[in-house]
Amino acid sequence: MLKINLKQLEAFVATAEFSSFTKASEELFLTQSTVSSHISALENTLGIRLIQRSARQRVTLTKEGELVYREAREILDRCQALQDLKNQDREHQLVIGASSVPGQCLMPEIMEDFLTATPDCHYVQLRGDSVKIHQYLAQRKANLGFVGIATNPKEYHYHPVAEDRLVLITANKEPYQTLYRSGTSGLELLSMPMILRDENSGTRQEMEQFLLRNRISPGDLNIIAQIDNPEAIRSSVSRGLGVSIMSVLAAREYLLSDRLLAFELGDQGAFRNIYLTWRKDALLTPAEQKFLEFVQSRPLVTASI
């Protein structure tokens, strides 16, 4: 007779993925004491310690806990797959996470083409920055996601769907118009008041890596605002509130309509890929598998102005 039950595995897996009893209890709609009791019962049954508890309330897995987590996660995934068999809608539904730039600039065209070729499918789009999309995938709230940075190639597949580049954007007005005509580099404008993306965005992380490669400390920038919405940044820059470093894909509409100017970041520039990503151990539905194959068959998009 089995002494382990799914409630214990769910409590353990949620706590491991959130690194928090509090967040795990909120996710499972249980009290913290119930979550803790489930995990203690699992530890007693297995005869090993799974979680290290710290004074700061942040939990980490023991080495044994990491092994048990992988097995427990797979068991829960397979149970979910069995439960979904009765839901025929899942066969035709996609749940896709997308960070800001791919969600706004790539997904509409991709989904239009995919739904034209596969009219019986429909999709739900989850929004967030690149870090949030990885969290959705880790929590199995989505199996596929578009992100601007590859953070964990050990556990995730990353298929490049677009090559993007970063530029420094300014309002299309003086003194920037004169500087633009003279061929000024965006690197020469880094002392201007700067509006940045949030710290978890792929654009922000790639920007900071580019600056460090050029021996420029991100802390030396004259940052006047940090905004998590690319549209708000584009609008603010076009009004002359400051300059920003943004991807060409994100700025393209404003650049084509002459509301912004784009200054290249030096001779070599700053490039990044946008990826479709999924967990290596993900159990894809038929619709998700069709979408994955569809995206993989498309040519790489190259951002241009």
Question: How would you portray this structure in words?
Answer:
The structure is a single chain. This protein has twelve helices and twelve strands. The N and C termini lie far apart (65 Å). Helix 1 (6-18) crosses helix 3. A hairpin with a 5-residue loop joins strand 1 and strand 2. The strands form three sheets. Strands 3, 4, 5, 6, 9, 10, 11 and 12 form an eight-stranded mixed sheet that branches. Helix content is 43%, strand content 22%.
Give a brief description.
This protein is an alpha/beta fold.
How is the secondary structure organized here?
Layout: H1 6-18, H2 21-28, H3 32-46, E1 51-53, E2 59-61, H4 63-84, E3 93-98, H5 100-105, H6 107-117, E4 122-127, H7 130-138, E5 144-147, E6 156-171, H8 176-181, E7 194-196, H9 202-213, E8 223-226, H10 230-238, E9 244-247, H11 248-256, E10 260-264, E11 270-279, H12 286-296, E12 301-302
Parallel strand pairs: 3-4, 3-5, 6-12, 7-8
Antiparallel strand pairs: 1-2, 5-11, 6-9, 6-10, 6-11
- Number of DSSP helical runs: 12
What is the H-and-E element order?
Answer: HHHEEHEHHEHEEHEHEHEHEEHE
Mean pLDDT: 89
| Low-pLDDT regions | none
Characterize the overall form.
globular
| Residue share in helix | 40-55%
Task: Give me the count of strands.
Answer: 12
Strand content: 15-25%
Radius of gyration: 23 Å
Broad structural category: alpha/beta
The end-to-end distance, rounded to whole angstroms, is 65 Å
Largest sheet: 8 strands, mixed
